[in-house]
Amino acid sequence: MSFGSPPASTTQTSSIASYDCNVPQAGNDGISSLNWSPTANFLVSSNWDSGIRCWEVQQQSAQQVMASPKAQVNHENNMPCLDTCFSADGSTVFSGGADKSVRMWQLGQTPPNNIAQQIGMHDSPVKSVGFIPSSNLVVSGGWDAKLKFWDARSPNAVGEFVLPDRVYDLDVRGNLMVVATANRHVLIYDVSGAQPREHSRKESPLKYNTRCVSCFPDQTGFAIGSIEGRVGIQYVQKVGNKDHFAFKCHRQDANVYSVNAIAFQQQFGTFATVGSDGVVTFWDKDNKQRLKAFNPIRSTIPCAAFNMQGTLFAYACSYDWSKGSAYYAPGTANEIFIHPTPEDEIKPKGSRKK
Protein backbone atom coordinates (compact mmCIF):
# COMPACT_ATOMS: atom_id res chain seq x y z
CA MET A 1 0.00 0.00 0.00
CA SER A 2 1.12 3.56 -0.64
CA PHE A 3 -0.66 6.88 -0.36
CA GLY A 4 -0.11 10.51 -1.27
CA SER A 5 2.12 11.99 -3.95
CA PRO A 6 5.92 12.11 -4.29
CA PRO A 7 7.97 15.20 -3.46
CA ALA A 8 7.38 18.02 -5.91
CA SER A 9 11.03 18.36 -6.86
CA THR A 10 14.33 16.53 -6.70
CA THR A 11 16.33 19.74 -6.20
CA GLN A 12 18.50 19.15 -3.14
CA THR A 13 19.21 21.71 -0.44
CA SER A 14 20.84 21.53 2.98
CA SER A 15 17.55 21.78 4.92
CA ILE A 16 13.89 21.06 4.24
CA ALA A 17 13.00 24.78 4.46
CA SER A 18 15.18 27.83 3.90
CA TYR A 19 14.18 29.33 7.26
CA ASP A 20 15.05 26.26 9.37
CA CYS A 21 17.41 26.94 12.27
CA ASN A 22 20.87 25.40 11.87
CA VAL A 23 21.79 24.31 15.39
CA PRO A 24 25.33 25.41 16.33
CA GLN A 25 28.03 23.02 17.52
CA ALA A 26 26.28 19.82 16.44
CA GLY A 27 29.35 17.61 16.84
CA ASN A 28 32.19 16.03 14.92
CA ASP A 29 30.64 12.73 13.85
CA GLY A 30 27.32 11.12 13.02
CA ILE A 31 24.25 12.04 15.07
CA SER A 32 22.51 8.99 16.51
CA SER A 33 19.48 10.43 18.32
CA LEU A 34 17.51 13.60 19.05
CA ASN A 35 15.19 14.07 22.03
CA TRP A 36 13.26 17.01 23.48
CA SER A 37 12.67 17.68 27.15
CA PRO A 38 9.07 16.89 28.21
CA THR A 39 8.87 20.11 30.22
CA ALA A 40 10.73 22.81 28.22
CA ASN A 41 12.28 23.47 24.82
CA PHE A 42 15.62 21.85 25.53
CA LEU A 43 16.96 19.62 22.76
CA VAL A 44 19.50 16.87 23.39
CA SER A 45 21.50 14.91 20.83
CA SER A 46 23.72 11.84 21.04
CA ASN A 47 26.69 11.50 18.76
CA TRP A 48 29.23 9.01 17.45
CA ASP A 49 31.99 11.30 18.75
CA SER A 50 30.84 10.21 22.27
CA GLY A 51 29.13 13.52 23.02
CA ILE A 52 25.75 14.29 24.54
CA ARG A 53 24.84 17.89 23.74
CA CYS A 54 22.07 20.17 24.99
CA TRP A 55 20.60 23.35 23.47
CA GLU A 56 17.96 25.76 24.70
CA VAL A 57 15.58 26.55 21.84
CA GLN A 58 13.46 29.68 21.52
CA GLN A 59 10.84 30.31 18.85
CA GLN A 60 10.86 34.02 18.20
CA SER A 61 8.29 34.12 15.38
CA ALA A 62 6.42 31.78 13.05
CA GLN A 63 9.56 31.13 11.00
CA GLN A 64 12.37 32.22 13.32
CA VAL A 65 13.99 29.90 15.84
CA MET A 66 17.20 30.30 17.83
CA ALA A 67 19.16 27.48 19.48
CA SER A 68 21.78 28.26 22.13
CA PRO A 69 24.35 25.65 23.20
CA LYS A 70 24.08 25.03 26.95
CA ALA A 71 26.37 22.12 27.83
CA GLN A 72 28.02 18.88 26.73
CA VAL A 73 29.11 15.68 28.46
CA ASN A 74 30.60 12.48 27.07
CA HIS A 75 30.76 8.72 27.30
CA GLU A 76 34.12 7.29 28.28
CA ASN A 77 37.05 6.51 25.97
CA ASN A 78 35.56 8.43 23.04
CA MET A 79 33.08 5.62 22.48
CA PRO A 80 29.92 6.46 20.50
CA CYS A 81 26.78 7.48 22.36
CA LEU A 82 23.85 5.77 20.63
CA ASP A 83 20.69 7.05 22.35
CA THR A 84 19.30 9.35 25.04
CA CYS A 85 16.06 9.96 26.91
CA PHE A 86 14.76 12.40 29.53
CA SER A 87 13.36 11.85 33.00
CA ALA A 88 9.68 12.78 33.36
CA ASP A 89 10.51 16.11 35.02
CA GLY A 90 13.08 17.03 32.36
CA SER A 91 15.89 17.41 34.90
CA THR A 92 17.98 14.41 33.89
CA VAL A 93 19.23 12.86 30.66
CA PHE A 94 19.97 9.14 30.44
CA SER A 95 22.10 7.62 27.70
CA GLY A 96 23.45 4.37 26.32
CA GLY A 97 26.44 3.74 24.15
CA ALA A 98 29.11 1.58 22.59
CA ASP A 99 31.07 1.56 25.86
CA LYS A 100 28.30 -0.84 27.07
CA SER A 101 27.22 1.61 29.74
CA VAL A 102 24.00 3.32 30.78
CA ARG A 103 24.73 6.83 32.02
CA MET A 104 23.02 9.73 33.75
CA TRP A 105 23.53 13.47 33.35
CA GLN A 106 21.68 15.94 35.56
CA LEU A 107 21.27 19.07 33.46
CA GLY A 108 22.92 22.11 34.98
CA GLN A 109 25.64 20.03 36.61
CA THR A 110 29.07 19.31 35.15
CA PRO A 111 30.23 15.83 36.22
CA PRO A 112 33.89 15.02 37.00
CA ASN A 113 36.07 14.91 33.87
CA ASN A 114 32.94 15.88 31.89
CA ILE A 115 31.95 12.18 31.81
CA ALA A 116 28.29 11.33 32.46
CA GLN A 117 27.78 9.22 35.58
CA GLN A 118 27.52 5.48 34.98
CA ILE A 119 24.41 3.83 36.44
CA GLY A 120 24.43 0.49 34.61
CA MET A 121 26.25 -1.89 32.29
CA HIS A 122 25.49 -4.43 29.56
CA ASP A 123 27.71 -7.11 28.05
CA SER A 124 27.59 -5.42 24.63
CA PRO A 125 26.82 -1.91 23.32
CA VAL A 126 23.60 -0.30 24.54
CA LYS A 127 21.49 0.55 21.49
CA SER A 128 18.45 2.24 23.03
CA VAL A 129 17.23 3.71 26.32
CA GLY A 130 13.87 4.88 27.67
CA PHE A 131 12.33 6.27 30.84
CA ILE A 132 9.29 4.68 32.52
CA PRO A 133 7.28 7.39 34.34
CA SER A 134 5.13 5.06 36.46
CA SER A 135 8.12 3.48 38.23
CA ASN A 136 10.84 6.11 37.62
CA LEU A 137 13.01 3.41 36.09
CA VAL A 138 15.40 3.67 33.18
CA VAL A 139 15.18 0.84 30.65
CA SER A 140 18.06 -0.08 28.35
CA GLY A 141 18.21 -2.49 25.44
CA GLY A 142 21.53 -3.90 24.27
CA TRP A 143 23.17 -5.92 21.57
CA ASP A 144 23.62 -8.56 24.28
CA ALA A 145 19.91 -9.38 23.72
CA LYS A 146 18.99 -8.12 27.18
CA LEU A 147 16.51 -5.58 28.44
CA LYS A 148 17.59 -4.13 31.79
CA PHE A 149 15.85 -1.82 34.26
CA TRP A 150 17.73 0.65 36.43
CA ASP A 151 17.04 2.73 39.51
CA ALA A 152 19.60 5.54 39.37
CA ARG A 153 20.16 5.18 43.12
CA SER A 154 21.37 1.57 42.77
CA PRO A 155 24.43 0.19 40.94
CA ASN A 156 22.68 -3.05 40.04
CA ALA A 157 19.82 -3.69 37.63
CA VAL A 158 16.45 -3.98 39.40
CA GLY A 159 15.09 -6.19 36.61
CA GLU A 160 16.14 -7.98 33.45
CA PHE A 161 14.50 -9.73 30.50
CA VAL A 162 16.35 -11.98 28.08
CA LEU A 163 15.21 -11.22 24.54
CA PRO A 164 15.14 -13.33 21.38
CA ASP A 165 17.88 -11.24 19.72
CA ARG A 166 19.81 -7.94 19.71
CA VAL A 167 17.84 -4.77 20.42
CA TYR A 168 17.54 -2.45 17.43
CA ASP A 169 15.17 0.08 18.97
CA LEU A 170 12.71 0.62 21.83
CA ASP A 171 10.17 3.26 22.74
CA VAL A 172 8.23 4.08 25.92
CA ARG A 173 5.04 6.14 25.88
CA GLY A 174 3.10 6.26 29.14
CA ASN A 175 2.27 2.68 30.11
CA LEU A 176 3.28 1.16 26.76
CA MET A 177 6.75 -0.03 25.80
CA VAL A 178 7.63 -1.65 22.49
CA VAL A 179 10.98 -3.30 21.78
CA ALA A 180 12.16 -4.30 18.31
CA THR A 181 15.03 -6.73 17.90
CA ALA A 182 17.02 -8.33 15.13
CA ASN A 183 15.28 -11.02 13.05
CA ARG A 184 12.01 -9.05 13.13
CA HIS A 185 10.94 -9.82 16.70
CA VAL A 186 8.62 -7.28 18.36
CA LEU A 187 7.90 -7.41 22.09
CA ILE A 188 5.14 -5.36 23.74
CA TYR A 189 5.23 -4.55 27.46
CA ASP A 190 2.81 -3.10 30.01
CA VAL A 191 4.90 -0.80 32.21
CA SER A 192 2.00 0.65 34.23
CA GLY A 193 2.99 -0.96 37.53
CA ALA A 194 6.08 -1.27 39.66
CA GLN A 195 7.18 -4.31 37.67
CA PRO A 196 7.07 -4.22 33.85
CA ARG A 197 5.42 -7.27 32.32
CA GLU A 198 5.37 -8.68 28.85
CA HIS A 199 1.99 -8.21 27.18
CA SER A 200 2.65 -10.01 23.91
CA ARG A 201 5.23 -10.66 21.24
CA LYS A 202 4.90 -10.92 17.50
CA GLU A 203 6.78 -10.96 14.26
CA SER A 204 7.19 -7.63 12.49
CA PRO A 205 4.62 -7.12 9.72
CA LEU A 206 7.50 -5.95 7.50
CA LYS A 207 9.62 -8.43 5.58
CA TYR A 208 13.06 -6.97 6.27
CA ASN A 209 15.12 -5.82 9.26
CA THR A 210 13.53 -3.33 11.64
CA ARG A 211 15.17 0.09 11.83
CA CYS A 212 12.91 2.01 14.23
CA VAL A 213 9.79 1.79 16.38
CA SER A 214 7.61 4.52 17.90
CA CYS A 215 4.52 4.31 20.15
CA PHE A 216 1.33 6.24 19.33
CA PRO A 217 0.69 9.21 21.66
CA ASP A 218 -2.58 7.57 22.80
CA GLN A 219 -0.70 4.32 23.58
CA THR A 220 -3.06 2.16 21.52
CA GLY A 221 -0.34 0.92 19.21
CA PHE A 222 2.92 1.67 17.45
CA ALA A 223 4.55 2.36 14.11
CA ILE A 224 7.50 0.31 12.94
CA GLY A 225 9.92 1.14 10.13
CA SER A 226 12.31 -1.06 8.20
CA ILE A 227 15.28 -0.92 5.84
CA GLU A 228 12.95 -1.69 2.91
CA GLY A 229 11.26 1.72 2.80
CA ARG A 230 8.07 0.61 4.48
CA VAL A 231 6.16 1.50 7.68
CA GLY A 232 3.78 -0.80 9.57
CA ILE A 233 0.93 0.56 11.72
CA GLN A 234 0.06 -1.89 14.50
CA TYR A 235 -2.53 -1.81 17.31
CA VAL A 236 -1.91 -3.52 20.64
CA GLN A 237 -5.58 -4.46 20.88
CA LYS A 238 -8.54 -4.04 18.54
CA VAL A 239 -9.55 -0.36 18.34
CA GLY A 240 -12.96 0.35 16.78
CA ASN A 241 -12.83 -0.05 13.03
CA LYS A 242 -9.06 0.49 12.83
CA ASP A 243 -6.92 -2.28 11.37
CA HIS A 244 -3.24 -2.96 11.03
CA PHE A 245 -1.75 -1.85 7.74
CA ALA A 246 1.59 -1.09 6.10
CA PHE A 247 2.61 1.38 3.42
CA LYS A 248 5.57 2.12 1.19
CA CYS A 249 7.64 5.27 1.60
CA HIS A 250 11.16 6.61 1.09
CA ARG A 251 11.38 5.23 -2.43
CA GLN A 252 12.56 7.07 -5.51
CA ASP A 253 12.21 5.40 -8.90
CA ALA A 254 13.67 1.92 -8.46
CA ASN A 255 15.63 2.83 -5.33
CA VAL A 256 14.48 1.77 -1.86
CA TYR A 257 15.75 3.58 1.24
CA SER A 258 15.75 2.84 4.95
CA VAL A 259 13.16 4.44 7.24
CA ASN A 260 15.54 5.68 9.94
CA ALA A 261 13.14 7.26 12.43
CA ILE A 262 9.43 7.76 13.12
CA ALA A 263 8.46 10.79 15.22
CA PHE A 264 4.91 11.34 16.49
CA GLN A 265 3.37 14.77 17.06
CA GLN A 266 1.75 14.71 20.49
CA GLN A 267 -1.29 16.94 19.85
CA PHE A 268 -2.64 15.45 16.63
CA GLY A 269 -1.22 11.90 16.66
CA THR A 270 0.22 12.46 13.19
CA PHE A 271 3.85 11.60 12.53
CA ALA A 272 6.99 12.18 10.52
CA THR A 273 9.27 9.66 8.86
CA VAL A 274 12.86 10.41 7.86
CA GLY A 275 15.09 8.27 5.73
CA SER A 276 18.31 7.48 3.93
CA ASP A 277 16.95 9.32 0.88
CA GLY A 278 17.24 12.64 2.72
CA VAL A 279 13.46 13.08 2.76
CA VAL A 280 11.16 14.22 5.58
CA THR A 281 7.48 13.32 5.20
CA PHE A 282 4.51 14.07 7.49
CA TRP A 283 1.70 11.46 7.66
CA ASP A 284 -1.81 10.95 9.06
CA LYS A 285 -2.25 7.26 9.90
CA ASP A 286 -5.95 7.52 10.82
CA ASN A 287 -6.96 8.91 7.43
CA LYS A 288 -4.13 7.17 5.57
CA GLN A 289 -2.89 10.41 4.07
CA ARG A 290 0.42 11.98 3.29
CA LEU A 291 0.19 15.48 4.78
CA LYS A 292 3.44 17.02 3.59
CA ALA A 293 6.34 15.76 1.49
CA PHE A 294 9.43 17.93 1.64
CA ASN A 295 12.04 18.01 -1.08
CA PRO A 296 15.07 15.78 -0.46
CA ILE A 297 18.16 17.31 1.11
CA ARG A 298 21.83 16.59 0.40
CA SER A 299 22.25 14.18 3.29
CA THR A 300 20.80 11.08 4.82
CA ILE A 301 18.64 11.81 7.89
CA PRO A 302 19.33 9.41 10.79
CA CYS A 303 16.95 10.76 13.45
CA ALA A 304 14.25 13.32 14.22
CA ALA A 305 11.84 14.42 16.97
CA PHE A 306 8.95 16.82 17.66
CA ASN A 307 8.94 18.96 20.79
CA MET A 308 6.10 18.37 23.27
CA GLN A 309 3.96 21.19 21.86
CA GLY A 310 4.42 19.81 18.34
CA THR A 311 5.47 23.23 17.04
CA LEU A 312 9.16 22.43 16.45
CA PHE A 313 10.58 19.52 14.48
CA ALA A 314 14.28 18.69 14.88
CA TYR A 315 16.11 16.52 12.37
CA ALA A 316 19.74 15.53 11.94
CA CYS A 317 21.78 15.49 8.74
CA SER A 318 24.71 13.07 8.82
CA TYR A 319 25.78 9.87 7.13
CA ASP A 320 23.81 6.85 8.34
CA TRP A 321 26.13 4.19 6.84
CA SER A 322 23.24 2.72 4.85
CA LYS A 323 25.56 2.28 1.84
CA GLY A 324 28.63 1.22 3.82
CA SER A 325 32.04 2.82 4.22
CA ALA A 326 32.57 3.28 0.47
CA TYR A 327 30.04 6.13 0.43
CA TYR A 328 31.36 7.92 3.50
CA ALA A 329 32.89 11.28 2.58
CA PRO A 330 35.35 12.52 5.23
CA GLY A 331 34.72 16.10 6.18
CA THR A 332 30.99 15.92 5.49
CA ALA A 333 29.13 18.24 7.87
CA ASN A 334 27.11 16.78 10.71
CA GLU A 335 24.21 19.15 11.24
CA ILE A 336 20.97 19.50 13.16
CA PHE A 337 18.10 21.67 11.92
CA ILE A 338 14.93 22.80 13.66
CA HIS A 339 11.87 23.29 11.48
CA PRO A 340 9.03 25.48 12.86
CA THR A 341 5.91 23.43 12.18
CA PRO A 342 2.62 25.26 11.61
CA GLU A 343 -0.64 23.40 12.12
CA ASP A 344 -1.42 23.29 8.41
CA GLU A 345 1.62 21.06 7.85
CA ILE A 346 0.93 18.48 10.55
CA LYS A 347 -2.80 18.69 11.43
CA PRO A 348 -5.10 16.01 9.92
CA LYS A 349 -6.97 17.23 6.88
CA GLY A 350 -10.07 15.06 7.32
CA SER A 351 -11.20 11.74 5.96
CA ARG A 352 -9.85 10.63 2.65
CA LYS A 353 -12.32 10.80 -0.23
CA LYS A 354 -13.29 7.42 -1.64
From TrEMBL:
<dbReference type="InterPro" id="IPR001680">
    <property type="entry name" value="WD40_rpt"/>
</dbReference>
<keyword id="KW-0677">Repeat</keyword>
<keyword id="KW-0853">WD repeat</keyword>
<feature type="repeat" description="WD">
    <location>
        <begin position="86"/>
        <end position="107"/>
    </location>
</feature>
<dbReference type="InterPro" id="IPR019775">
    <property type="entry name" value="WD40_repeat_CS"/>
</dbReference>
<feature type="repeat" description="WD">
    <location>
        <begin position="24"/>
        <end position="65"/>
    </location>
</feature>
<feature type="repeat" description="WD">
    <location>
        <begin position="119"/>
        <end position="160"/>
    </location>
</feature>
<protein>
    <submittedName>
        <fullName>WD repeat-containing protein</fullName>
    </submittedName>
</protein>
<dbReference type="Pfam" id="PF00400">
    <property type="entry name" value="WD40"/>
</dbReference>
<feature type="repeat" description="WD">
    <location>
        <begin position="252"/>
        <end position="293"/>
    </location>
</feature>
